[in-house]
Amino acid sequence: MKDVLGDKRMVALLIGPALLLYTLVTIVPIVWSLVYTLFSGGLISGMHFTGLSNFTKFFTDESALDALWFTVRYALIITVGQVTLGYLLALLYVFFLRRASAFIRTLVFFPVVLPTVAVALLFQQIVQVAPTTGPVNAAVQYFGGDGTDFLGSTTGAFWVLVVMDLWRSMGFYAVLLYAGLVDIPDEVLESARLDGAGGFTLIRRIVLPLSLPVLLSSLIFSMNGTLKVFDSIVALTNGGPGSSTTPLTLYMFQTSFSYGDYGYGSTLATMLTLLCLLFTLFIFRSTRRDLTKG
Length: 294
Hints:
The chain contains 14 helices and 2 strands. It is mainly alpha-helical.
């Protein structure tokens, strides 16, 4: 093995094809997109060099700023919900259900493998008000309330999206965090119990610190995934009502392919990438500061 790794030609032969494929599929499109940010227009109207005017336009574009605000608000709420519910479920699996948790884990994980369109159609039927009354509105009317068009209001559509995406994803984060919890040595937990730690104290002082690495990974994974949300919103609301549930990804798609402005669409993609990077760095720095204090 040392002879192989010491031979530069052999290393280049082994790594070269994969590196070339990664460059063509990932690096080249990224560089191409960055170059597009300096132009405006598309294939039909033609590309015109505009320098940094696309970035200036972003900060004065009300639609872009509204999409940015929705994206950040949605990502923060969903990330906190996904990781919190996932961690609580993982604790339930490990400390309460234990060996009997396999069936429950399967049931909770099942929505993860369902097609996004199918889940969106399911939730449309659940909150439907007309022509057929869905279960939610039927319950509201049963208790004397009036039927509500949840997907027709800004607030209602937002919270239906939140509930749908939490239901879809919490099983994945429960399994991910469960894998981190089962790696905690039993000897450590038994020693803590013998020292009198139990229940909430055991979780707060022993389990939580030892599971911090997988929690950090879950936070970063969730934050980057929710900042780039696209399919669930398109399937459920298509950005409506109006543009109240339009994230940066959908606005970028509309700008590039509906309006034909590849330059500004690439600028939106670049700003979204920077947003993901900033949140990732913030999580890393916050966690490192907490570890230093500890």
